[in-house]
What we know:
Layout: H1 2-13, E1 30-34, E2 37-41, E3 47-50, E4 53-54, E5 62-64, E6 67-71, H2 72-78, E7 82-86, E8 91-96, E9 99-104, E10 109-112, E11 115-118, E12 124-126, E13 129-133, H3 134-140, E14 144-148, E15 153-157, H4 167-178, H5 183-195, H6 211-214, E16 217-220, H7 225-228, E17 243-250, E18 256-261, E19 267-273, E20 276-282, E21 284-286, E22 292-293, E23 301-311, E24 314-322, E25 328-332, E26 338-343, E27 346-355, E28 360-366, E29 371-377, E30 382-388, E31 390-391, E32 397-400, E33 406-415, E34 418-425, E35 430-436, E36 440-446, E37 453-457, E38 461-466, E39 478-482, E40 487-491, H8 497-500, E41 503-506, E42 512-519, E43 525-531, E44 536-542, E45 545-551, H9 553-556, E46 559-565, E47 575-576, E48 579-580, H10 581-597, E49 603-607, H11 617-626, E50 631-638, E51 647-651, H12 664-679, E52 683-688, H13 693-697, E53 702-709, H14 713-719, H15 722-742
Parallel strand pairs: 3-15, 17-21, 27-31, 46-49, 46-50, 50-53, 51-52
Antiparallel strand pairs: 1-2, 3-4, 5-6, 6-13, 7-8, 8-9, 9-10, 10-11, 12-13, 14-15, 16-27, 17-18, 18-26, 19-20, 20-24, 22-23, 23-24, 25-26, 27-28, 28-36, 29-30, 30-34, 32-33, 33-34, 35-36, 37-38, 38-45, 39-40, 40-43, 41-42, 42-43, 44-45, 47-48, 51-53
Amino acid sequence: MKLLKYIAYILIFIINFSTIQIYAEENTGITLVYDGETHIYNEKPIKLVINGEEINSVMPPIIFDGNTLVPTREVFEAMGAIVEWKADTKEAYIGMEDTLVILKMNTDKAWVNGVDVSIPMEPKIINDKVMIPLRFVAETIGFNVEWVQSERMIKIDNTVEENIEDDIDNNEEIIDEEIDNNKEIEEEIEEKIEEEIEYIDIEDIPSLPTELAEEPIILETDIDIKEKEEINSIIESQSHPTTDIIDVEILDNSYQFKISASGPISSVDHMLWEDKIVIDINNANMELEKTIIEVDDNNFIKSIRASQYSSEPKVVRVVFDLNNPSNYNIIMSEDRQNLIVEIRKTILTSIELTQNTIGDMIIINGDNTPNINVFRLTTPDRLVIDVFNCESSLGFIEELVKGQYISGIRTSQFDENTFRIVLDLNGQPAYEIIPLENNAVAIQLSIPSYKNIKYINDDSTKLILVKPDEDFNINSIVQEDDYMNKIYKITFPYNYINVYGHGIFHIGDGKLDSIEIGLNDEGKTEFKFLEKKVFAYDIYEEDNYIVISILRPREKYKKILVLDPGHGGKDPGAIGNGLYEKELNLDISLRLYDLLKNNSEDIKVYITRTSDTYPTLQDRSNLANEVEADIFLSVHNNSFYSTHRGTEVLYYPTSTSDSSELTGKIMAQIFQKYLVETLGTQDRGIKERPELYVLRTTKMPAVIVEIAFVSNVEDANLLKSDSFKQNAAEALYKGIIDIFEKYPTNR
Length: 747
């Protein structure tokens, strides 16, 4: 029991905040030597008090990448712990009662009573002292750690409340004491057994209101907003010949966008209209390849649209659709051929941590509406709020909080353009992002309507569910992977709303956006995973739990192929002799897909379409790159003059001196060989095509096979034959098997 108690304690209280950068407040000029280099440490001194007594050491506590490091022996022996240093293995042993912690230098794992645990940062030898993360070790061996910002003091005491008990064990003890044949007691036992599935909540969630309702925390900036106000640059109108708008691009910093012209721009009109920045470029022609510029995961804009707004006079309009209304600046280059549209930085004015009748709430105020991203971290549970493209004077702050779920708040300037807020949580509450008036946004926490669910995203990512009943068969769970739309579903055989509840479990951690829990049209319980990227899933049992492990495809599959039937939907491809290329491509690809599904070669196939739809070229390339495919095969048919016929394979040229490495050229040669041998078509050879999008943008060996010509009567007659299309699929199948045999992935 005591060991379980400490492990639970670790899971609740480990502080992992290594991503936050602390900036120097005053120059103390301490010289630190570590990792073979000399560094100057410029933080204010930190006072360390253990059980009311200040600890002084030759090597003082230091803040390193957001974590406080302390000399091992001096500090932990003052706590009454046993400390031993193993010089040969470079390991520090810290023992307290029945808890043993082993830390190895420059390793981000600790050994705690036989269990590997991630730690906030690696221990280091600094100035010949073994320096280890204070909070992690102190709380692991049973001490309270408190940071007093006003005094830059760390207070440590051993008055940890002995109140962290496992509810399941308590229930079992009660059941053992109360079992008899009385029907009323049996019903009570059944209720208690049902309560065991509430294992997810390690701590009891306090009822509202808590102390946070009476004593909200308000953090205010000292930046003078009036001094920071900027005015859009006035762009002087000049007389120049008509120019062409040839490019619109997102710059690397993601909050600046460049509009390029072929010659000097005469004049520009612009305005902020609702959630759009509208730029009118006068005396200009629209010469962009696309009217909609692709935007992928930008924090500030949803899309960019361009058009020839007017022909007389000539005006090109570029519209930036914003995630949130934002002020902006426009900068004209000296040669007047480039316009930089810049989202202006938001100045954070205050952060309020409060509570209402729903639950804990954090309100972020700025001179513009803050642009935020919220995501969960687990083990321990935290909510991280990144405020993008902003300026703040708050810096590093750490305070304890007595909310319903929130137990602490920490802030820091994460990087030049991002301010980070971390909320330490007891449990995994639901949350909702709510835009407010007066340039504010709130994150509302609440008791979730879903239950008996635990999400973990530390070393591995998994969703843990309580089994609906003791005899539940996980093979009855139906899986559906709609990877092109980044949706994965599992469906249970019955309605289990009494076990799992319903609602949206927001995550936002770069893997999953959210998990939707509810009933499908057939009244069965369904979990819908809305992915950020394509993942693979394993479902297995652990005791009374169902574990859904979320993996990179390469972690699950040894061989991965992306199969791409070319064209589709609105894009028919080549047309000739009564044939549509998109239909031929799909027919041959589906025949190949069936061959691969039924093979024993353990090849995972992702296919870009299975019906008459049109994934964009970017969609096809993105899928291959996201799943980290080993090979990419796009199936096409050709068209040119009616006299042209035969088979060819296109590839992207690369240079490598390693003959054992698979390249697009080698793949092209293999597929060409099998196609010509099997089909008896004219051998048109293999061809370099570096300009083709799917060949150029995929990160693995990729080819486009051109089976035959729809524009040629003889080839067209072959393509109308089911046996020819089946033979084409079998030739491609043989090529795929050959490729994986000759060039194994070794996974």
